[in-house]
Amino acid sequence: MAELTAVHGNPLIGLYARVSDDFAVVGIRDGKFESLIREELDVDVVRTTVCGSELAGAMVALNSKGIVVCGHVMKKELEMLEKSFEVLVLETEITCMGNVIAINDHGALVHPDLGDDVISKISEFFDLDVHRATIGGIKTVGMSAVVTNKGALVNPNTSEWELKKVEEVLGVEPVRGTVNFGSEMVGTGVVANSKGYIAGRDTTGFELGVIEEALGFL
């Protein structure tokens, strides 16, 4: 049975956590949320703000190789992350790495405005092909999609060309869908890895069926 939840009443749970198949970064103190992630996704939880923000899901991108944050990360936060991850710190005007990078262990799609030097550093650090892209015409690809090593749920407005790009770069077959009763920014409402997923409290039964298909749980 699908697990639905909210963080302090907010169904936009993807803003507060980002997960890989091994670890989760949670930016807000919420014991129930942490326990649910630990149990449903079978990961160790690292709780820390990132760049002073509780919105860790928006601030970091990660896969099994490591995690990327912007240069505004605080020393204490960096030390906490380095206990569990190889960490890439990027000096860039774009600070919300979770918003602008959609990544799994096969590849990465990034915001079209990221510079060549930043893309090269991401590619070298993760040892992956990295490509600029939009998803559903939206540049913040990390919030316009939910990507795991098994599948991808993408914005319902994603074009055929964008679907092909997701499949070619990330190595999974994407499915269009929504969360939280029609929200197109699916990354804000789902936290997922290859082992499970958690959806925002307002997600409908129909949406859950699409999510399960997209992420390979049917």
Tags for this model:
218 residues, alpha/beta, L-arginine/glycine Amidinotransferase, Chain A, 3-stranded mixed sheet, 7 helices, globular
Number of domains: 1
Strand content: 15-25%
Mean pLDDT: 97
The structural class is: alpha/beta
Give the helix proportion (percent range).
25-40%
- How much is the radius of gyration in Å? 15 Å
User: How would you describe the shape?
Assistant: globular
Main pleated-sheet profile: 3 strands, mixed
> Helix segment count?
7
Secondary-structure element pattern, one letter each: EEEHEHEEHEHEEHEEEHEEEH
Classified by CATH, the class is Alpha Beta
**CATH fold descriptor:** L-arginine/glycine Amidinotransferase, Chain A
Number of distinct beta strands? 15
Distance between termini? Answer: 12 Å
* Architecture (CATH level 2) name: 5-stranded Propeller
CATH superfamily: L-arginine/glycine Amidinotransferase, Chain A
Low-confidence stretches: none
The largest beta-sheet arranges its strands as 1-15-14
